[in-house]
Amino acid sequence: MIRQAMVMTGLNLLSLPQRWGSALIDVFGVACVVAVFVGLFAVVASYQALLVTGSADSVLLVMKSGAGAENDSSIAQDDAASVVTAARAADPKVVISPETSRLISVKRPQNHDFVTVALRGAGPDAIALREGMKLVAGRMVQSGRYELLVGRASQRQFAGLQLGSTLHLADSDWRIVGVFAATATGVESEVWADLGALQSAYKTGNRISTLRLKPTSDAAAASIRERLKADPNLGIGVQRERDYFQGSINGLFRTMRFFAYPVLLVMAIGAVFAALNTMYGAVAARTREIGVARSIGFGATPVAVGVLVESVLLSVLGGIVGVVVIHLALDGMQTNTNFLGDTQFAFNLVVPPALMLQGVLWAALIGLLGGLLPAVRAGRLPIVEALRET
Protein backbone atom coordinates (compact mmCIF):
# COMPACT_ATOMS: atom_id res chain seq x y z
CA MET A 1 0.00 0.00 0.00
CA ILE A 2 2.87 2.36 0.78
CA ARG A 3 4.38 1.80 -2.63
CA GLN A 4 1.03 2.45 -4.31
CA ALA A 5 0.61 5.67 -2.29
CA MET A 6 4.08 6.83 -3.37
CA VAL A 7 3.27 6.11 -7.02
CA MET A 8 -0.02 8.02 -6.82
CA THR A 9 1.70 10.95 -5.11
CA GLY A 10 4.33 11.03 -7.84
CA LEU A 11 1.71 11.01 -10.58
CA ASN A 12 -0.18 13.82 -8.83
CA LEU A 13 2.95 15.95 -8.59
CA LEU A 14 3.82 15.32 -12.24
CA SER A 15 0.44 16.76 -13.22
CA LEU A 16 1.05 20.03 -11.33
CA PRO A 17 2.24 21.98 -14.42
CA GLN A 18 -1.25 21.47 -15.87
CA ARG A 19 -2.76 23.02 -12.73
CA TRP A 20 -0.08 25.59 -11.92
CA GLY A 21 -2.53 28.49 -11.51
CA SER A 22 -4.58 26.96 -8.71
CA ALA A 23 -1.46 25.44 -7.14
CA LEU A 24 0.22 28.86 -6.98
CA ILE A 25 -2.86 30.34 -5.32
CA ASP A 26 -2.66 27.60 -2.71
CA VAL A 27 1.06 28.17 -2.10
CA PHE A 28 0.65 31.96 -1.99
CA GLY A 29 -2.25 31.81 0.50
CA VAL A 30 -0.35 29.59 2.91
CA ALA A 31 2.81 31.69 2.50
CA CYS A 32 0.89 34.82 3.53
CA VAL A 33 -0.53 33.14 6.64
CA VAL A 34 2.85 31.81 7.72
CA ALA A 35 4.64 35.09 6.97
CA VAL A 36 2.19 37.08 9.10
CA PHE A 37 2.36 34.52 11.93
CA VAL A 38 6.15 34.30 12.00
CA GLY A 39 6.61 38.06 11.49
CA LEU A 40 4.32 39.05 14.37
CA PHE A 41 5.73 36.64 16.87
CA ALA A 42 9.33 37.23 15.76
CA VAL A 43 8.93 40.82 16.95
CA VAL A 44 7.68 39.61 20.33
CA ALA A 45 10.42 36.97 20.56
CA SER A 46 13.07 39.59 19.78
CA TYR A 47 11.63 41.89 22.42
CA GLN A 48 11.62 39.05 24.92
CA ALA A 49 15.24 38.24 24.14
CA LEU A 50 16.13 41.91 24.61
CA LEU A 51 14.54 42.31 28.04
CA VAL A 52 14.22 38.90 29.65
CA THR A 53 17.34 37.19 28.34
CA GLY A 54 19.38 40.27 29.16
CA SER A 55 18.11 40.48 32.73
CA ALA A 56 19.58 38.57 35.64
CA ASP A 57 18.19 35.91 37.96
CA SER A 58 20.69 36.95 40.61
CA VAL A 59 19.64 40.62 40.77
CA LEU A 60 16.77 41.73 43.01
CA LEU A 61 14.76 44.78 42.00
CA VAL A 62 13.25 46.91 44.78
CA MET A 63 10.48 49.36 43.83
CA LYS A 64 7.75 51.28 45.59
CA SER A 65 4.69 49.11 46.28
CA GLY A 66 2.07 49.48 43.57
CA ALA A 67 4.49 50.87 40.99
CA GLY A 68 4.08 49.09 37.66
CA ALA A 69 7.33 50.38 36.17
CA GLU A 70 10.61 51.91 37.30
CA ASN A 71 9.55 55.35 36.09
CA ASP A 72 6.50 55.20 38.37
CA SER A 73 8.45 54.25 41.47
CA SER A 74 9.64 56.77 44.07
CA ILE A 75 11.44 55.65 47.23
CA ALA A 76 12.22 58.12 50.01
CA GLN A 77 15.72 58.40 51.44
CA ASP A 78 14.77 56.87 54.82
CA ASP A 79 13.09 53.88 53.17
CA ALA A 80 16.08 53.37 50.88
CA ALA A 81 18.40 53.46 53.89
CA SER A 82 16.26 50.84 55.65
CA VAL A 83 16.44 48.59 52.59
CA VAL A 84 20.24 48.94 52.49
CA THR A 85 20.51 48.15 56.21
CA ALA A 86 18.33 45.04 55.92
CA ALA A 87 20.18 43.84 52.81
CA ARG A 88 23.62 44.24 54.39
CA ALA A 89 22.45 42.51 57.58
CA ALA A 90 21.50 39.46 55.47
CA ASP A 91 24.51 39.63 53.16
CA PRO A 92 27.41 41.96 54.06
CA LYS A 93 28.91 41.61 50.58
CA VAL A 94 25.74 42.39 48.63
CA VAL A 95 26.22 44.87 45.76
CA ILE A 96 23.68 47.69 46.01
CA SER A 97 22.84 50.19 43.29
CA PRO A 98 20.40 53.02 44.05
CA GLU A 99 19.04 54.35 40.76
CA THR A 100 16.59 56.90 39.48
CA SER A 101 14.85 56.89 36.11
CA ARG A 102 13.43 59.73 34.03
CA LEU A 103 12.10 59.99 30.48
CA ILE A 104 13.67 62.27 27.88
CA SER A 105 12.78 63.00 24.26
CA VAL A 106 15.07 62.11 21.38
CA LYS A 107 14.52 62.21 17.64
CA ARG A 108 14.20 59.28 15.28
CA PRO A 109 15.90 60.39 12.06
CA GLN A 110 14.07 57.85 9.89
CA ASN A 111 10.60 59.04 10.96
CA HIS A 112 11.47 62.64 11.86
CA ASP A 113 9.49 62.34 15.10
CA PHE A 114 10.35 62.44 18.78
CA VAL A 115 10.16 59.46 21.14
CA THR A 116 11.02 58.95 24.80
CA VAL A 117 13.96 56.95 26.12
CA ALA A 118 15.01 56.21 29.67
CA LEU A 119 17.51 58.49 31.37
CA ARG A 120 19.03 56.56 34.28
CA GLY A 121 20.90 58.10 37.18
CA ALA A 122 23.25 55.60 38.79
CA GLY A 123 26.58 55.16 40.51
CA PRO A 124 29.62 52.94 39.84
CA ASP A 125 27.99 49.85 41.39
CA ALA A 126 25.26 49.91 38.73
CA ILE A 127 27.79 48.70 36.17
CA ALA A 128 29.28 46.14 38.56
CA LEU A 129 25.99 44.24 38.88
CA ARG A 130 25.17 44.25 35.17
CA GLU A 131 27.03 41.45 33.45
CA GLY A 132 28.50 42.27 30.07
CA MET A 133 28.18 46.03 30.41
CA LYS A 134 31.32 47.88 29.39
CA LEU A 135 32.54 51.22 28.08
CA VAL A 136 33.34 51.06 24.35
CA ALA A 137 34.14 54.70 23.59
CA GLY A 138 35.01 57.86 25.54
CA ARG A 139 35.16 57.83 29.34
CA MET A 140 32.94 57.38 32.39
CA VAL A 141 30.92 60.29 33.77
CA GLN A 142 32.40 62.13 36.73
CA SER A 143 30.51 62.46 39.99
CA GLY A 144 28.40 65.58 40.28
CA ARG A 145 28.99 66.73 36.71
CA TYR A 146 26.35 67.11 33.99
CA GLU A 147 27.73 64.37 31.77
CA LEU A 148 26.10 61.44 30.00
CA LEU A 149 26.82 57.92 28.80
CA VAL A 150 24.72 56.62 25.91
CA GLY A 151 23.93 53.03 25.03
CA ARG A 152 25.27 51.77 21.73
CA ALA A 153 21.78 50.76 20.52
CA SER A 154 20.37 54.21 21.31
CA GLN A 155 23.23 55.86 19.48
CA ARG A 156 22.50 53.82 16.35
CA GLN A 157 18.75 54.45 16.31
CA PHE A 158 18.31 57.99 17.61
CA ALA A 159 19.70 61.37 16.55
CA GLY A 160 21.83 63.71 18.65
CA LEU A 161 23.51 61.02 20.78
CA GLN A 162 26.99 61.06 19.27
CA LEU A 163 30.09 61.28 21.42
CA GLY A 164 30.75 64.94 22.24
CA SER A 165 27.16 66.04 21.52
CA THR A 166 25.14 68.04 24.03
CA LEU A 167 21.58 67.41 25.27
CA HIS A 168 19.54 70.10 26.98
CA LEU A 169 17.90 68.50 30.03
CA ALA A 170 16.26 70.15 33.04
CA ASP A 171 17.38 73.63 31.89
CA SER A 172 21.00 72.50 31.73
CA ASP A 173 23.38 71.30 29.04
CA TRP A 174 24.65 67.76 29.42
CA ARG A 175 27.66 66.57 27.40
CA ILE A 176 27.92 63.00 26.09
CA VAL A 177 31.33 61.74 27.22
CA GLY A 178 31.05 57.99 26.68
CA VAL A 179 29.32 55.11 24.91
CA PHE A 180 28.62 51.76 26.56
CA ALA A 181 27.60 48.30 25.34
CA ALA A 182 25.52 45.84 27.32
CA THR A 183 25.46 42.65 25.22
CA ALA A 184 22.29 43.58 23.28
CA THR A 185 20.08 44.14 26.34
CA GLY A 186 17.45 46.78 27.04
CA VAL A 187 20.06 48.79 28.95
CA GLU A 188 21.71 49.64 25.62
CA SER A 189 18.63 51.71 24.78
CA GLU A 190 19.17 54.00 27.76
CA VAL A 191 21.11 57.17 28.53
CA TRP A 192 23.01 57.21 31.82
CA ALA A 193 24.07 60.02 34.17
CA ASP A 194 25.57 60.34 37.62
CA LEU A 195 22.85 59.77 40.24
CA GLY A 196 23.68 62.83 42.32
CA ALA A 197 23.87 65.11 39.29
CA LEU A 198 20.48 63.90 38.02
CA GLN A 199 18.83 64.35 41.41
CA SER A 200 20.22 67.86 41.62
CA ALA A 201 19.17 68.84 38.09
CA TYR A 202 15.61 67.55 38.47
CA LYS A 203 15.33 68.74 42.08
CA THR A 204 14.15 65.39 43.42
CA GLY A 205 16.19 65.56 46.61
CA ASN A 206 17.47 62.17 47.70
CA ARG A 207 14.50 60.21 46.38
CA ILE A 208 15.30 57.34 44.04
CA SER A 209 13.26 55.13 41.72
CA THR A 210 14.71 51.71 42.48
CA LEU A 211 17.41 49.79 44.26
CA ARG A 212 19.10 46.87 42.58
CA LEU A 213 20.65 44.29 44.85
CA LYS A 214 23.09 41.56 43.81
CA PRO A 215 23.51 39.05 46.67
CA THR A 216 26.43 36.66 46.82
CA SER A 217 24.21 33.53 46.82
CA ASP A 218 20.66 32.30 46.36
CA ALA A 219 20.39 31.75 50.10
CA ALA A 220 21.41 35.36 50.75
CA ALA A 221 18.86 36.55 48.17
CA ALA A 222 16.09 34.59 49.91
CA SER A 223 17.13 36.01 53.27
CA ILE A 224 17.07 39.58 51.91
CA ARG A 225 13.61 39.09 50.44
CA GLU A 226 12.29 37.69 53.72
CA ARG A 227 13.71 40.61 55.71
CA LEU A 228 12.24 43.21 53.36
CA LYS A 229 8.83 41.56 53.20
CA ALA A 230 8.75 41.27 57.00
CA ASP A 231 8.64 45.07 57.34
CA PRO A 232 5.34 46.30 55.84
CA ASN A 233 6.08 49.88 56.89
CA LEU A 234 8.68 50.19 54.14
CA GLY A 235 5.99 50.16 51.46
CA ILE A 236 8.25 48.51 48.91
CA GLY A 237 8.07 45.43 46.70
CA VAL A 238 11.00 43.16 45.87
CA GLN A 239 11.29 40.70 42.99
CA ARG A 240 13.89 39.22 40.72
CA GLU A 241 14.81 41.52 37.86
CA ARG A 242 14.02 38.77 35.36
CA ASP A 243 10.55 38.25 36.88
CA TYR A 244 9.85 41.97 36.52
CA PHE A 245 10.59 41.93 32.80
CA GLN A 246 8.95 38.54 32.25
CA GLY A 247 5.73 39.87 33.74
CA SER A 248 5.75 42.73 31.28
CA ILE A 249 6.44 40.39 28.37
CA ASN A 250 3.62 38.05 29.44
CA GLY A 251 1.20 40.95 29.19
CA LEU A 252 2.51 41.72 25.73
CA PHE A 253 2.04 38.09 24.68
CA ARG A 254 -1.55 38.10 25.90
CA THR A 255 -2.29 41.30 24.00
CA MET A 256 -0.60 39.99 20.86
CA ARG A 257 -2.54 36.73 20.98
CA PHE A 258 -5.82 38.55 21.60
CA PHE A 259 -5.47 40.67 18.47
CA ALA A 260 -3.36 38.42 16.24
CA TYR A 261 -5.05 35.04 16.54
CA PRO A 262 -8.46 36.13 15.16
CA VAL A 263 -6.75 37.69 12.14
CA LEU A 264 -4.56 34.63 11.63
CA LEU A 265 -7.58 32.34 12.02
CA VAL A 266 -9.47 34.16 9.26
CA MET A 267 -6.41 34.02 7.00
CA ALA A 268 -5.89 30.33 7.78
CA ILE A 269 -9.52 29.51 6.92
CA GLY A 270 -9.03 31.29 3.61
CA ALA A 271 -5.89 29.23 2.98
CA VAL A 272 -7.75 26.01 3.83
CA PHE A 273 -10.46 26.87 1.31
CA ALA A 274 -7.77 27.63 -1.28
CA ALA A 275 -6.29 24.19 -0.64
CA LEU A 276 -9.76 22.63 -0.90
CA ASN A 277 -10.35 24.31 -4.25
CA THR A 278 -6.94 23.26 -5.55
CA MET A 279 -7.31 19.63 -4.54
CA TYR A 280 -10.94 19.30 -5.68
CA GLY A 281 -9.75 20.65 -9.02
CA ALA A 282 -6.94 18.11 -9.04
CA VAL A 283 -9.34 15.25 -8.37
CA ALA A 284 -11.74 16.48 -11.05
CA ALA A 285 -8.95 16.84 -13.62
CA ARG A 286 -7.59 13.37 -12.92
CA THR A 287 -10.81 11.43 -12.43
CA ARG A 288 -10.16 9.14 -15.41
CA GLU A 289 -6.57 8.49 -14.30
CA ILE A 290 -7.83 7.62 -10.83
CA GLY A 291 -10.33 5.20 -12.41
CA VAL A 292 -7.57 3.54 -14.46
CA ALA A 293 -5.35 3.23 -11.37
CA ARG A 294 -8.18 1.66 -9.39
CA SER A 295 -8.98 -0.77 -12.23
CA ILE A 296 -5.43 -2.12 -12.33
CA GLY A 297 -5.29 -2.81 -8.62
CA PHE A 298 -4.63 0.44 -6.79
CA GLY A 299 -6.63 0.63 -3.58
CA ALA A 300 -8.85 3.49 -2.43
CA THR A 301 -6.52 4.33 0.47
CA PRO A 302 -3.37 4.89 -1.66
CA VAL A 303 -5.38 7.11 -4.01
CA ALA A 304 -6.65 9.18 -1.07
CA VAL A 305 -3.20 9.34 0.52
CA GLY A 306 -1.71 10.57 -2.77
CA VAL A 307 -4.15 13.49 -2.86
CA LEU A 308 -3.60 14.28 0.83
CA VAL A 309 0.20 14.20 0.55
CA GLU A 310 0.08 16.52 -2.46
CA SER A 311 -2.02 19.00 -0.48
CA VAL A 312 0.36 18.88 2.48
CA LEU A 313 3.44 19.26 0.24
CA LEU A 314 1.98 22.32 -1.50
CA SER A 315 1.15 23.90 1.85
CA VAL A 316 4.58 23.10 3.28
CA LEU A 317 6.11 24.72 0.20
CA GLY A 318 4.01 27.79 0.91
CA GLY A 319 5.11 27.71 4.55
CA ILE A 320 8.77 27.54 3.54
CA VAL A 321 8.30 30.45 1.15
CA GLY A 322 6.65 32.52 3.90
CA VAL A 323 9.38 31.69 6.40
CA VAL A 324 12.19 32.49 3.97
CA VAL A 325 10.64 35.82 2.98
CA ILE A 326 10.20 36.91 6.61
CA HIS A 327 13.68 35.71 7.56
CA LEU A 328 15.28 37.67 4.74
CA ALA A 329 13.16 40.74 5.46
CA LEU A 330 13.39 40.89 9.27
CA ASP A 331 16.31 38.90 10.65
CA GLY A 332 19.02 41.30 11.80
CA MET A 333 16.98 44.44 11.10
CA GLN A 334 17.56 47.27 13.57
CA THR A 335 14.35 48.80 14.87
CA ASN A 336 12.84 50.43 17.93
CA THR A 337 9.51 50.28 19.69
CA ASN A 338 7.71 51.19 22.92
CA PHE A 339 5.66 48.03 23.50
CA LEU A 340 5.83 48.30 27.28
CA GLY A 341 4.75 51.90 27.75
CA ASP A 342 6.37 55.23 26.98
CA THR A 343 9.97 54.08 26.94
CA GLN A 344 11.49 53.39 23.53
CA PHE A 345 13.77 50.38 23.14
CA ALA A 346 16.16 49.90 20.23
CA PHE A 347 16.95 46.30 19.25
CA ASN A 348 17.74 43.89 16.43
CA LEU A 349 14.95 41.68 15.13
CA VAL A 350 15.64 37.95 15.27
CA VAL A 351 13.57 35.19 13.64
CA PRO A 352 14.19 32.12 15.86
CA PRO A 353 14.53 28.72 14.12
CA ALA A 354 11.91 27.24 16.49
CA LEU A 355 9.41 29.87 15.35
CA MET A 356 10.17 29.16 11.68
CA LEU A 357 9.63 25.44 12.27
CA GLN A 358 6.34 26.22 14.01
CA GLY A 359 5.25 28.22 10.98
CA VAL A 360 6.00 25.31 8.63
CA LEU A 361 4.10 22.92 10.91
CA TRP A 362 1.08 25.24 10.83
CA ALA A 363 1.35 25.21 7.04
CA ALA A 364 1.32 21.41 7.06
CA LEU A 365 -1.83 21.45 9.21
CA ILE A 366 -3.52 23.81 6.74
CA GLY A 367 -2.63 21.43 3.91
CA LEU A 368 -3.93 18.47 5.88
CA LEU A 369 -7.27 20.15 6.55
CA GLY A 370 -7.56 21.43 3.00
CA GLY A 371 -6.78 18.07 1.42
CA LEU A 372 -8.82 15.81 3.65
CA LEU A 373 -12.22 16.07 1.95
CA PRO A 374 -10.83 15.94 -1.62
CA ALA A 375 -8.77 12.89 -0.61
CA VAL A 376 -11.88 11.14 0.70
CA ARG A 377 -13.70 11.99 -2.53
CA ALA A 378 -10.86 10.62 -4.65
CA GLY A 379 -10.78 7.37 -2.67
CA ARG A 380 -14.55 6.86 -2.95
CA LEU A 381 -14.87 7.49 -6.70
CA PRO A 382 -16.68 4.54 -8.27
CA ILE A 383 -14.35 2.89 -10.75
CA VAL A 384 -16.94 2.58 -13.57
CA GLU A 385 -18.05 6.23 -13.29
CA ALA A 386 -14.41 7.40 -13.14
CA LEU A 387 -13.56 5.50 -16.33
CA ARG A 388 -16.49 7.10 -18.16
CA GLU A 389 -15.03 10.60 -17.59
CA THR A 390 -13.56 12.22 -20.68
Task: Please estimate the helix content.
Answer: 40-55%
Q: How big is the Rg? A: 30 Å
Low-confidence stretches: none
- Major sheet description: 10 strands, mixed
Percent strand: 15-25%
Beta strand count: 12
The best one-word shape is elongated
Helix-strand makeup class = alpha+beta
SSE order, as H and E?
A: HHEHEEHEEHEEEHEHEHHHEEHH
Taking the alpha carbons of the first and last residues, their distance comes to: 28 Å
> Counting H and I runs of at least 4 residues, what is the number of helices?
12
Mean pLDDT: 82
SSE layout and pairings?
Blueprint (H helix, E strand, L loop, with lengths): L1 H13 L5 H34 L6 E5 L12 H14 L4 E14 L4 E10 L1 H5 L4 E6 L8 E5 H6 L8 E4 L2 E11 L8 E4 H8 L7 E5 L3 H12 L6 E5 H45 L1 H9 L4 H31 L3 E4 L7 E4 L4 H28 L2 H6 L2
Parallel strand pairs: 3-8, 5-7
Antiparallel strand pairs: 1-9, 1-10, 2-3, 2-9, 4-7, 5-8, 6-7, 11-12
Key structural traits:
54% helix, ten-stranded mixed β-sheet, elongated, two-stranded antiparallel sheet, 390 residues, single chain, 20% strand, alpha+beta
Tell me briefly what this model is.
The chain is of the alpha+beta class and 390 residues long. The protein is 54% helix and 20% strand.
Description:
- This protein is α+β, with helices and mostly antiparallel strands.
- The radius of gyration is 30 Å and the shape is elongated.
- The model has no long low-confidence stretch (mean pLDDT 82).
